[in-house]
UniProtKB/TrEMBL annotation:
<dbReference type="InterPro" id="IPR000834">
    <property type="entry name" value="Peptidase_M14"/>
</dbReference>
<dbReference type="Pfam" id="PF18027">
    <property type="entry name" value="Pepdidase_M14_N"/>
</dbReference>
<dbReference type="Pfam" id="PF00246">
    <property type="entry name" value="Peptidase_M14"/>
</dbReference>
<protein>
    <recommendedName>
        <fullName>Peptidase M14 domain-containing protein</fullName>
    </recommendedName>
</protein>
<dbReference type="InterPro" id="IPR040626">
    <property type="entry name" value="Pepdidase_M14_N"/>
</dbReference>
<dbReference type="GO" id="GO:0006508">
    <property type="term" value="P:proteolysis"/>
</dbReference>
<dbReference type="GO" id="GO:0004181">
    <property type="term" value="F:metallocarboxypeptidase activity"/>
</dbReference>
<feature type="active site" description="Proton donor/acceptor">
    <location>
        <position position="459"/>
    </location>
</feature>
<comment type="similarity">
    <text>Belongs to the peptidase M14 family.</text>
</comment>
<feature type="domain" description="Peptidase M14">
    <location>
        <begin position="229"/>
        <end position="495"/>
    </location>
</feature>
<dbReference type="GO" id="GO:0008270">
    <property type="term" value="F:zinc ion binding"/>
</dbReference>
<dbReference type="InterPro" id="IPR050821">
    <property type="entry name" value="Cytosolic_carboxypeptidase"/>
</dbReference>
Length: 505
């Protein structure tokens, strides 16, 4: 495969002539075993073109072409391909396609494209994309310019204005690198609306081309970049196992996903109030699972007096990753079938489309069954927002049957969270949905309408929380965990209103 990649890179010029088709003959032979690596390392158009070559020549002929191509390029006498700058995204949550890697004066230019999610039928009727996560290797001490070329096609392109890329050498500490959005002058920044998806007719006109660019000289041989600090499936499994070993916490598998992964739920407490948290319906919003981990770790602390007090009055159920398939696949908003899970909580909203179902959205189906079995007095649905630089709640004010008591509980809960964390605020957000206009296919609205309870969508920024801001790290995994831990205080402070609401059931 390395020989193949070397040959293909040597054919990038228009003058490559016969060398190009010789290299393309090689591709089908290796596609079955190496397509993942190829798709991250060479232009995708080359791979798609290669599939049109038929019939395949003999294996011996292919080998001769590979050797002659390498000799023509003089690769054998030059540096090994192992020392050339490369890009890889063939790992958990990886997402990037390589268009080209070229030298331009004193810098190496990486031309890249974000790979879209599967098409979302019935509800969104589009392909989402925005999440990226990749590693550049063999780059130490070299000036590198990274260019993501298909930003105009992204779901929330305005989110890349004033955005800093997350970067890491050790995949543990993630710092921020300033970026620039090119060709953005006619593009107006707009906030997402409370429906969590702006209708196409209301979306601002975007330039046909938008590029996100950043430049740096890596201090080490390899460096990773991501839209936000990733939360790996390996960490997910490790945290579940660690917390499940606590005598006060129980691990339940409530179902499986389309890819066969478990839907993990942690349960703790023995009180009558039924409090729920679901995180990361949209897999690219990895800060949501960091938030959930912070919340869970505080609940598991046997020496925390407020956590102990909450668990005396409530039973808490947490699904830390609602969309493990999309998380591993590197999607922004969808599961393995292309379903936007936060549009799968109520059927009949989009014509005759029924949701949730085991065939398309088993993740929501299984959680809804648990809700119906145990009841719900409060639900926190944890997300991330690409544009707004703040942590905030989106409420369920637009549902049928919204009452003054429900509004008072929501307002009290919001103020209690402001008191509990300096990173939470109530000034910025989506605004209120008009009465009776709530989209019931969204989790927060569906749960509030079905159970008559407090239900909120907790949004965190991909950029930074203002104020306070952190120029080096921006909004980060540690800050998300601290915000999650502070949720214990806000829930405990809202105890009396939740109990009064429960008494009316």
């Amino acid at each position: 495969t390395q020989d193949l990649l070397t040959a293909l890179r040597g054919c990038s010029s228009a003058s490559a002539g016969p060398r190009m088709w010789r290299a393309l003959w090689i591709v089908p032979l290796t596609l079955q075993s190496s397509e993942g690596l190829l798709s991250q390392s060479v232009p995708s158009s080359w791979i798609s073109r290669s599939r049109s070559f038929s019939p395949l020549p003999s294996t011996s002929l292919l080998k001769r072409f590979a050797v002659s191509t390498e000799e023509e390029l003089g690769v054998a006498d030059k540096q090994s391909s192992m020392s050339r700058p490369l890009v890889s995204a063939t790992f958990d949550s990886g997402n990037i396609l390589v268009t080209d890697i070229v030298e331009d004066g004193d810098e190496i230019v990486f031309r890249l494209r974000i790979r879209p999610d599967p098409f979302t039928e019935h509800t969104d009727r589009r392909q989402h994309m925005q999440w990226f996560h990749f590693q550049a290797v063999n780059v130490q001490g070299q000036k590198c310019r990274f260019v993501i070329e298909n930003i105009a096609e992204c779901s929330y392109a305005a989110g890349f204005q004033n955005y800093k890329v997350a970067a890491s050498y050790d995949r543990d500490e993630w710092f921020r690198v300033p970026s620039e959005l090119r060709n953005a002058s006619p593009f107006q920044q707009v906030a997402r609306v409370n429906s969590d998806a702006m209708p196409a007719s209301a979306a601002p006109e975007k330039p046909k081309e938008l590029h996100l660019e950043w430049t740096l000289v890596p201090e080490q041989a390899s460096i990773s970049f991501a839209y936000f600090t990733p939360y790996s499936y390996e960490r997910h499994m490790g945290v579940i196992a660690e917390l499940a070993a606590s005598p006060a916490m129980q691990h339940e598998v409530i179902g499986t996903t389309l890819d066969g992964r478990t839907m993990d739920m942690l349960v703790t407490g023995a009180g009558p109030l039924q409090i729920w948290m679901g995180a990361r319906q949209h897999p690219g919003e990895s800060m949501a699972e960091w938030f959930a981990e912070g919340f869970l770790r505080r609940l598991a602390d046997p020496h925390d007096p407020k956590a102990k007090a909450l668990l005396r009055i409530a039973t808490v159920r947490v699904i830390p990753n609602m969309n493990p398939d999309g998380s591993v696949r590197g999607h922004l908003r969808t599961n393995a079938a292309g379903a936007n899970l936060n549009r799968e909580w109520w059927g009949g909203i989009y014509g005759d489309y029924e949701a949730p179902t085991l065939e398309r959205s088993p993740e929501v189906y299984h959680v809804m069954k648990q809700l119906e079995e145990h009841g719900c007095d409060a639900y926190i649905d944890v997300h991330g927002d690409e544009i707004i630089e703040a942590n905030f709640f989106a409420g369920a004010e637009g549902i049928p049957g919204w009452t003054e008591d429900m509004q008072n509980t929501f307002d009290h809960f919001s103020k209690a969270y402001v008191d509990a964390s300096p990173d939470f605020q109530i000034g910025l957000g989506y605004g209120k949905t008009p009465p009776g206009r709530a989209n019931l296919s969204i989790c927060c609205n569906a749960v509030a309408a079905k159970f008559g309870c407090l239900a909120v969508t907790l949004e965190q920024p991909f950029k930074d929380a203002s104020p306070p801001q952190d120029p080096k790290y921006g909004w980060s995994a540690p800050r998300a965990m601290r915000l999650g831990a502070a949720m214990v205080d806000a829930l405990l402070d809202t105890r009396e209103l939740l109990e009064a609401q429960k008494s009316l059931e």
